[in-house]
Amino acid sequence: MKHIYLGILCLFTYQLTQSQVTIYSDDFENGLGNWTVTGQWGLATSQAYNGTYSFADSPSGNYLNAQTTYATLDSVFDLSTSLDANIYFKAKYDIENGFDYCYIDLSSNNGSTWTTAYTINGEGNLGNWSEFNINVGGFVGNSQVKMRYRLYTDAGYQSDGIFVDSLRITKDSVDNAPPLILHDPDIHYEGQVDTNYRTFTITDISGVASAVLYYSVDGGAYTQTNPIDTSGDDYTYAIPPEDAGAYVDYYVEAIDSSAQTNSGLSDFYHYVSGNYIKYESGEVNFITSYTSTGAFTGTAMRMTLDGLTTITTAFIGNYTDVNNPNDSMLFHVWTDSNGAPGSNMITPIMVFPAANLLQPHLITRIDLRPYESQLDSLIGDVHIGFTVPSGTVWLAQTTPGTSSRVQNFNGSTWSSETDDYHFRIVTDTMILPPVAEFGIDATGDPVIVFSDSSENNPLSWHWDFGDGDTSIVQNPTHTYDIGAYNVCLEVSNAAGSDEICKGMIVFNGPPSAFFTYSTSNDPEIAFNDLSTQGPTSWSWDFGDGDTSTTQSPTHNYLDTGDFTVCLIAANAFGSDTFCQTLHIYNRRPEAFFVYTVFLDTAVTFTDLSGFSPTAWSWDFDNNGDTSDVQNPGYLFPGTGGTFNVCLTASNAYGSSTPYCDDVEIKDLVGIDHISANGVVISPNPAKDYASITLPKRITNASYQVFSSDGKLVMRKSNLTSNAFNIDVSSLQAGIYFIEISENETSFVKMPLMVID
Which domains does the chain have, with CATH numbers? Predict the structure, then answer.
């Protein structure tokens, strides 16, 4: 669990002065009419400091597990004219140390957002009533201040909770409070490369006179550093990068500008320099014991070192309380042997867990820098962990984990475990001099956005914008006048510095015209405007006499050749012209066809020419016969033979090369008609008409003509002659079927081919 401590919001003992005024008090003898509660919060009669009642999270017993409950004071306090404020109350509590917490939260905006002012986590559980005095001077200047109690419990142990009585809130016309110092770093040892930058939010009603960060490396003397950047209430500090494995402590001291100067210190924060590798979430779900005589006498976590170099530090998340004391542990780094720990890579190190009663989850740090030669250039899987030489070691646990990443030891063999335990390592990262580089975004010209892309983790930046202005912000924004400028960026870190300069033009006026085009659908060309500096109108000259005012038009060219296309892009400040030449091919068709032979001499041709022909010229290689139909039919002579049929396709841009193919026709000399059951159709194929001859005179004859897809296209009834004609001039070329009936009884069905 993450502990939040605010430096100025600690317990203070203040001497009351005449300037201090009580703005709210509550002894809870008149009920909870001014409170909104959730969970079990209510009045308790079993405990009271004064009178009969107190205020408790669980008045009649132990609090529940896995809950977050609130007691929120409905009153809103106006501290806009105050210079200081305090919260006083009496309390006694029994809270599971390290797992359950009672927070006192404050809001400056009527409950929209909350800040933790004080945390009670069960340290030295109070069996007797004690007075709490919480200075909340950091919230003065606001007109909508609220407070609440918040109880958080985990899924395990239950206790009696907290009892509160004699609540009093005061304001003061004298600034007795130190500056409010807020800092919310990443969870300690969270797992990313440390950036060396730390940002604190520091406020005071009287203003902040100074704010200095102090840091210490490996327990050495503290060095002070001033902020490298101040933006509003945010103060950013740069701690020089250290070698991997270096242990860095830091804190901030801030002094206000009040008549009687007040100084405040933040909490102490820590990190280890280098590249972190971790496999658990950082949240403590359970604790687990390992004993020298128990079921498991040790545990290990598999770490994958892919391209990393030297292991410099290891961390173990231990736990302790009065009922779970720790003994020493023997720390190991093992090789990997088929997924389980193998041989020791270093001599095992005797370590005593760092967790204590005040910090039950404190992470134990093992400095491995003395073992650099053994732990250098490791790639692949290794295991870190410990065995218990005697007694018991308690370990923080996260669930669920990943199968086979954790191995438990029973004294002789290793077995897989599905939970994750709190192991982490740090590897070295070489500190190299930075290589300066930056980008320029002129989209909002004349407001230019610069983005630092320097390599090797620079520590500081110095921009020279070329117009006399400078900046130390990493990614600044700057407004220019129109003109040409030389912009320089100098970056630095502990290993050195580097500088790069780039020229740029600020237009603050006319656009810069530019376009591209696509010829994929030649002669239809798609143009794409890419002009910069915010054009509002466009004028296109396509080079063939046509124009357009569309931003990104499409134009169809009718002729082939080279055309110079020009774009004039304009806005309120002026215009710019850009021209480029393109070539139009206007492609002629490519002729191609296929054919199908029907009834031995009748052939249908299908045009498959490419590039959109609009005219067709067919030569059937027979007595000069031709056609200009796109898909013609043709009746070749019954004498048979080979005919070289050719097609030339044309469009507005020219004619294709003729495409020719041989058509083989069978020798059917003397046959120019089709007959069946004595019925004769002649000629067949037919162009204008077909003559039908029946074998005998029949009465009440009729015929129906169907297309090849079965649709009825023609019919006639009440025929009394055995010979008659069918007019087919209105039918399209193709295959048809004639059904002849007598007295509505089908007599015969025969094919008929119609040609153009």
Answer: 7-172 (2.60.120.260), 180-272 (2.60.40), 275-427 (2.60.120), 438-506 (2.60.40.10), 515-584 (2.60.40.10), 593-665 (2.60.40.10), 674-754 (2.60.40.1930)
